[in-house]
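Progress report, Aim 2. The chain analyzed during this reporting quarter is listed below.
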Amino acid sequence: MMRGANTPGAIRGGGTLSLDNITTLDDLIYLSAGGGLQNQGDKNAKYGTAYYSVPFGWWSLDLYASRDKYTQRVVDGSNTYEYSGDERNLSATLNRMLFRSGYQKLQASFQVLKRDDEYDLNDTEILVQAHDMASWRATLEHTAYPGKAVIDTKVSFQRNTSWLGAEQSVEEQTGNANVGSRLINIDVEANVPFSLFKRSLSWHPHYSQQITPDKLNLPDQLSIGNRWTVRGFDGDTTLQADSGWFLRNDLNLNLPSLAAQFYLGMDIGRVSGQGSEIYSTSYLAGGVVGLRGGLWKTNYDFFAGTPFVHPDELDASPLVLGMTLRWEY
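Predicted structure tokens for the chain:
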């Protein structure tokens, strides 16, 4: 299916507080909150996150919580509707370093996740979209350092459970999603520096794939067509289905005198399984050109993208402009 973006407002602002070693245990606490900078009119959004990590020997424990609330007005002819969402996520992750040397490292993790989603239309809950889900995920991650390159490979297996008071969704009750659904995620990412004509460059590929034998709930499906998957699309509508993959490629030119990096990106992706049958094509491809770097304690990323391939059902803008600014004190 095509899914609308759930983050109204193209411009967001916020603040972050990060504290290191506050208990002398080499721990880290991270707090962040913010919202849309255009909260007038038909869109409003706010969010908050909290993260805590503490190591002990070859182990570490990560705790995470987030909440994202948004409201937007939808005009349909002469009628105006108010659509709102409230999404809450909790997770606890136990990590274990299995092996480490100067050339590679291998680590494993076990994570328990809880997700609660509520959506309203004119203050009436949309039960078919609500989710109260719990799952566990086991992950194995290998990082290699061949020469000056870095290659990171991650494989995870996730299964939904009835833990933590989770309830069956409407999709599961009607047979559109399997109870106890399973999914496998594979991620391979690399950074390969090289020189050409006395210029410092790097190649940064990222391949991600999701595989499942089951029919999934909507939050577990793979969604592509935004700045985190296949770029060149504004993310207002995405392609979404049970399975799929995407490949991102960045060619980076380092600009040391400007403390910046110019980059060209070309991405492609495909969705498959339940949800993909409604498209004239299940492929997306797009490109992006941008500049990122740091100046005066501010990290920035300015980019322009364009779509190359998309189904006729997706209304893609011919030009997508975006930026990210992060100030650190």
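The chain has one domain: 2-327. Confidence is low (pLDDT under 50) at residues 1-9. These observations will guide the mutagenesis work planned for the next reporting period.
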